[in-house]
Design goal:
Strand order of the largest sheet: 4-12-11-10-7-5-6
Radius of gyration: 21 Å
Number of strands: 17
Mean pLDDT: 97
Low-confidence stretches: none
Number of domains: 2
Largest sheet: 7 strands, mixed
Helix content: 25-40%
Distance between the termini: 37 Å
CATH architecture of the largest domain: 3-Layer(aba) Sandwich
CATH superfamily of the largest domain: Type I PLP-dependent aspartate aminotransferase-like (Major domain)
Bound molecules: pyridoxal-5'-phosphate
Structural class: alpha/beta
Strand content: 15-25%
Number of helices: 13
Shape: globular
Length: 384
């Protein structure tokens, strides 16, 4: 059996994996089993935001793993309490904000949806077209993409989706609406910044009808756009957020961050998870939040603009979207999926295609100007 066949023998086929086995990572660099070095502009889909194996994250994991790995949610651990405080205070959602930890983004979304439905029993969940919120049944029901939903029907009842416009949102929210859930910058569909008008319309519609406004910050949060939260520039504050991906530097974690009005809804027995909020993940999360400083974010904003300018000049690029280190390029006459494969083989550059003509770039927030330029040079060579 060849190497590739052997690798796929016991793995289900729900990923079209690249034929690369990575064995090591450091900062923005990865190494495969044959010793080739790569530059990573994909960061495990917005997870390795502080770079691979950041020394502070590695130390936090090592130290915590040596003292306590799991005790469960019927007790407290110091890292869990400290990270909940850190996230609640950094959330901007106000006094009374509370956190429920999960193991993934989709589970953070499930918690948010359940909370909203308990708050308004039987209420409708409104989500936006092009949105992506996860693969479990609740989150999938809020992800209005035919190819992802259709094979798994019937989905959860009581979900509606509308176009991501102010008018459409204002037109659909009513007294029956439990929540509107949206990504301030839509990631999986190709990096679409919804902008302040859409967020404001959602806020006003939810306020008018007593519905909860949930921002899914799983991809665009924690500094990815150059602000701590994707919604921050709009000034529109949600009732709750979902956070995951980058939070624990690569360990599985998620968080449902519930502001006042949502934070009081869950009572003992309402919701739970065996592993969630484990001390090792939370210790890593605290280390990540230390690294994502105001100075680092200022650098991401500056380098993000430089990246936009360089991307716009590349041959074949017809559109650049996004901000900070969450950007996408649309390519004319180039197969983006094939390009990602060529980038790996020919330039040792790790990219992601969100569709047949769109490449998404998610560099580590810590990459710095020199390595970012090196990576963009490789992309330029590829497209030349
Ligand atoms: C905005 C958004 N929400 C939810 C999810 C689901 O997160 P997970 O894959 O950790 O379940 C993702 C994953 O890509 C995402 O980008």
């Amino acid at each position: 059996m060849s190497g590739a066949d052997a690798r796929d023998r016991y793995l289900t086929a729900n990923y079209a994996r690249q034929p690369v086995v990575f064995v090591r990572g450091e900062g923005a660099r990865l190494w495969d089993a044959e010793g080739h070095e790569y530059l990573d502009l994909q960061t495990g889909l917005a997870v390795n935001s502080v770079g691979h194996c950041h020394p502070a994250v590695v130390t936090a994991i090592r130290e915590q793993a040596a003292s306590l790995i799991h005790v469960g949610n019927l007790f407290y651990t110091e890292p869990m309490v400290a990270l909940s405080e850190r996230l609640a205070l950094a959330s901007g959602l106000g006094d009374g904000t509370k956190v429920f930890f999960t193991n993934s983004g989709t589970e953070a979304v499930e918690a948010a949806l359940k909370c909203a439905r308990k708050r308004r029993r039987g209420g409708t969940i409104v989500s936006l077209q092009r949105g992506f919120h996860g693969r479990t049944y609740g989150a999938l029901s809020a992800t209005p993409q035919e190819s992802k939903q259709a094979p798994f029907a019937p989905l959860v009842p009581g979900f509606v989706s509308v176009e991501p416009t102010a008018e459409a949102i204002s037109g659909v929210v009513d007294q029956e609406t439990a929540a509107v859930i949206l990504e301030p910058v839509q990631g999986e569909s190709g990096v679409y910044d919804l902008g302040p008008d859409v967020l404001r319309a959602a806020r006003e519609a939810c306020d008018a009808h007593g519905a909860a406004l949930i921002f899914d910050e799983i991809q665009c949060g924690l500094g990815r756009t150059g602000d701590l939260w994707g919604w921050q520039r709009s000034g529109v504050v949600p009732d709750a957020m979902t956070v995951a991906k980058a939070l624990a530097g690569g360990l599985p974690i998620g968080a449902f961050v519930a502001g006042p009005g949502m934070a009081e809804v869950f009572e003992p027995g309402d919701h739970g998870s065996t592993f969630a909020g484990g001390p090792v993940q939370c210790a890593a999360g605290l280390a990540v939040m230390d690294v994502v400083s105001d100075d680092l974010l200022a650098g991401v904003r500056e380098l993000g603009e430089r990246m936009t300018a360089r991307l716009a000049e590349l041959p074949g690029v017809v559109a650049v979207r996004g901000r900070g280190f969450m950007q996408a390029i649309d390519l004319d006459g180039v197969d983006a999926i094939a390009l990602v494969g060529r980038a790996l083989r020919e330039q040792r550059l790790v990219l992601n295609a969100t569709g047949p003509g769109t490449v998404r770039l998610l560099p580590p927030l810590t990459i710095g100007p020199a390595v970012l330029d090196e990576a963009l040079d490789r992309l330029a060579t590829l497209l030349a």
